[in-house]
Amino acid sequence: MSVAATVKTWLTHLAVERGLSDNTLKSYRRDCARYAEWLERAGIEELGDVTTSHVENYVMDLRRGVDGRQPLSASSAGRALIVARGLHKFALAEGLVKFDVAAEVSPPATGRHLPDTLSIEEVGALIDAIPTSDIATPVDIRDRALIEVLYGTGARISEAVGLVVDDVADRPEVLRILGKGSKQRIVPFGSMAKKAVEDYLTRARPALSKGKSHALFLNQRGGELSRQSAWAVLKKAVQRAGLDKDISPHTLRHSFATHLLEGGADVRVVQELLGHSSVTTTQIYTHVSAENLRQVWRESHPRA
């Protein structure tokens, strides 16, 4: 069944079986027409040919504004997504498609502040403020390794403290991370993070270990470093570096994503590295990068 025919059948169902008001049906009809038009431009004739990526790209195009259309607000794009979801859910219930590809697509965030980030220079200052020379304590060496891992891989703080020694020993070029929902992902293990972890495993972890934990990052009692303690590690590093910013472990994750996008990385690659289930979650970092570009333009262009 064509997209247009499926839309017509669904709208009839909503009017007859569900008894929706004329105003609600008018809104649904408008959003369905916009979705059907977008699918037609994408060369899709039947709803069964739609993928999750198509639905995600549709929402992204609504937010950006394409083909001369005005960009929609996050709330308006979210409502349009609800209609598209309803159409796909109906098609699945009627046996017109095998899968509901729209069910897992996240709506754009509304009223959400752009995440705080550090510049590349600020990240360097944060890490370099932690000593690594002969006077460095085992805790200093651990702290530097932890921050290198957080920034170098984009791991959440809970993911970083949940690492075990085998996670870095089995595959020296990549890091195996257990994320939300017990979903495992593999991220590249950069040379600087790798060197810091190797230094920690050689010079510091043996001094901290009491032989009772396989955790990679240990506290001074030999147990697994807690999320609260990891937070304190970062706060101490911020003070050492003299940075006048309110920085959390998530700031390093935000900075990791932003710096990748500014360096030319594809948003879907960043999505995989961060472990986001939907690319719409990752899209917020493209807004950060765009704002950085606007700031540079305002400061540099003679007619800004």
From TrEMBL:
Keywords: Cell cycle, Cell division, Chromosome partition, Cytoplasm, DNA integration, DNA recombination, DNA-binding. Residues 1-92 form the Core-binding (CB) domain. The active site is at 156, 180, 250, 253, 276, 285 (o-(3'-phospho-dna)-tyrosine intermediate). The gene is xerD. This is Tyrosine recombinase XerD. Forms a cyclic heterotetrameric complex composed of two molecules of XerC and two molecules of XerD. It holds the Pfam family Phage_integrase. Belongs to the 'phage' integrase family. XerD subfamily. It comes from the Bacteria. InterPro entries: CB, DNA_brk_join_enz, Integrase-like_cat_sf, Integrase_catalytic, Integrase_recombinase_N, Integrase_SAM-like_N, Recomb_XerD, Tyrosine_recombinase_XerC/XerD. One of its GO terms (biological process) is DNA transposition. Site-specific tyrosine recombinase, which acts by catalyzing the cutting and rejoining of the recombining DNA molecules. The XerC-XerD complex is essential to convert dimers of the bacterial chromosome into monomers to permit their segregation at cell division. It also contributes to the segregational stability of plasmids. Its main location: cytoplasm. Residues 113-298 form the Tyr recombinase domain. One of its GO terms (cellular component) is cytoplasm. Coiled coil: none annotated. HAMAP family: Recomb_XerC_XerD (MF_01808), Recomb_XerD (MF_01807). It is found in: Cytoplasm. GO terms for molecular function: DNA binding; tyrosine-based site-specific recombinase activity. The lineage of its organism: Bacteria, Bacillati, Actinomycetota, Actinomycetes, Mycobacteriales. The keyword Cell cycle applies.
